[in-house]
Amino acid sequence: MRKALAGFAAVAIVAASVWFVAPGRVDAQGGGTIEVEVKYNGPAQVETLKVNKDTEQCGKEAKIEKVVVGGNKGLANAVASVAGAKGQPTAKKAVIDQKGCKFVPHVVSMTPGEIDILNSDGVLHNIHTYSTANPSINKAQPKFKKTMTEKFDKPEFVKITCDVHSWMLGWVAVMPHPYFGVTNESGMAKIENAPAGKQTVEVWHETLGKATKEVEVKPGATTKVTIEMVKK
Ligand SMILES: [Cu+2]
Fold first, then answer.
1. pTM of the full predicted structure?
2. pLDDT in tens, 84-111
3. What are the Cα distances from residue 101, in Å, to 5, 114, 121, 169, 227?
4. Distance CA 180, CA 161 (A)
5. N or C: which end of the chain has fewer CB within 10 A?
């Protein structure tokens, strides 16, 4: 009797694991990775200005980073995504910090939903966003307010500034699907689990605009693409 039960249990476990594992396998095979390298042949554009308030937290000099070019002509802070893709939003909450009177990271990417705006500086900041699809935010964040939670429901690139510190500039890339990445100092971004087949990779940069390139995404494989931005 006991043996029969154990046998039944074993069959049940096998059946259950087939049931639960199968859909996951299909998903994993369906997507591929795109390694995007974004290059820019032009000069970096970084404005420097003297700071005359909150110098203890902000330092004496501020930088406005409009075009950041790293080694090997890699363009930082560009958002690479699969154009026209459809997919569910990621569950991860986006976070942007105000640290040293700078927005960190300079470009934060997210799917529509909430974002935590941190104030690590412990000084008065005043968030001011510029957007068309989402309502504009213009709100003081006093020094004691460590986190302010805001919402961006519509996909677009939102410019974020601070009315207290004129040089503070950041961007929130609100993307319509989870297939995107932001380039690092070397100009590299990774798009994980991108839909297989012929896709268009689109690159957006705050100063240099947009560029696209076609790629063939293979299930379970990595496709490399290099996209060069042209000076506007
Ligand atoms: Cu500020």
1. 0.86
2. 999 988 878 999 999 999 999 999 999 9
3. 66, 22, 7, 10, 32
4. 23
5. N
**Ligand 1 centre distance from Cα of residue 148 (Å):** 14
Give the Cα separation of 174 and 162 in Å (integer): 19
Distance from the CA of 26 to the center of ligand 1, in angstroms?
Answer: 47
Q: Which residues surround ligand 1, an ion (CB under 5 A)?
A: 125, 162, 164-165, 168
C-alpha of residue 63 to centroid of ligand 1, in Å:
13
Distance 140 CA to ligand 1 centre (A): 9
Sheet (strand 222-229) strand order: 188-195, 31-40, 222-229
Per-residue model confidence (pLDDT) at position 231: 79
Q: Which amino acid is at 52?
A: N
Residues of the chain with pLDDT under 50: 1, 7-28
* Res 92: pLDDT: 86
